[in-house]
């Protein structure tokens, strides 16, 4: 767990010069439409609905044959040791991909590359002042995206490029942020295809009085890609923008202990987006219902000794339910709102989550980090669907 804590200090280092391994001969895919072993398309992802009184029912999960846009997903830090070359899929990568991005296959074709990420052990080494190799993993993802863009993004049915939703968490979120900076920010030939970017569990910084840097703001993560905003219910669903948050269940008095969501530059803030607010046109700071979908032991391939399977060490005190479905969901029991506090270490912005305390305890420093994509997976899914529909309608598809 100490190594896991160390990773929170390294998210912004992905762009720093670091040692790099030889490039892969070709991309390696966890999930790619048309591949013979695409578990993103074949895994059953039904959910058990757990009502407040304890009664349960099964919510079926279906993937339509045709989906209007694509998703490009980069998974978080899950490897304890360095990846092989070429990387090979293990339970860690497969289960975290399913728990974070699996349900979104209802709305998009899923492209998920493998990459030789900086493993947990390297964060300990980095804490000793030795270089940590983030560059190899980034270049693996960049290579995979180039392959996707050149070979899969052009829709054979329409002859037009397809819209893309980017998804990333933790180290994967930092990789996605850099990819967008280099390939999309201020580049309309690609940014026009950006449906949205979900950059979760890392710090996306925006000016206090604007949604992006505007072209010349070194303190902002993006200069021209704005944060997703919907000021009222009559405003359109925003597209071409960023959704980001770090989830916590903590009082404002504990903000100094948080490892994520912090900035010491008080002309900027760390972006907190409420998916439920974007769906309804409410304020991000309004307390709104959220629909958590928490991974079960079955999805995580766990057992009595390792309830979260290969992710047990990372998931700490999380105890997955034993329902015979992929997820458990708790309607009417979880709420969330964006909030912030200023302490002795700067300003902290986070998504305050209430109602999950009996399911996943808040970690003092990391909060609900490992479940960022799950605390409102229902809202994220509905928002991706709405953004895909809005973007597609605007393209005349």
TrEMBL record:
Pfam families: DUF3089
Coiled-coil segments on the chain, per record: none
Position of the signal peptide: 1-21
Keywords (A to Z) from UniProt: Signal
Name of the protein described by the UniProt record: Lysophospholipase
Native source organism of the sequence: Sinosporangium siamense
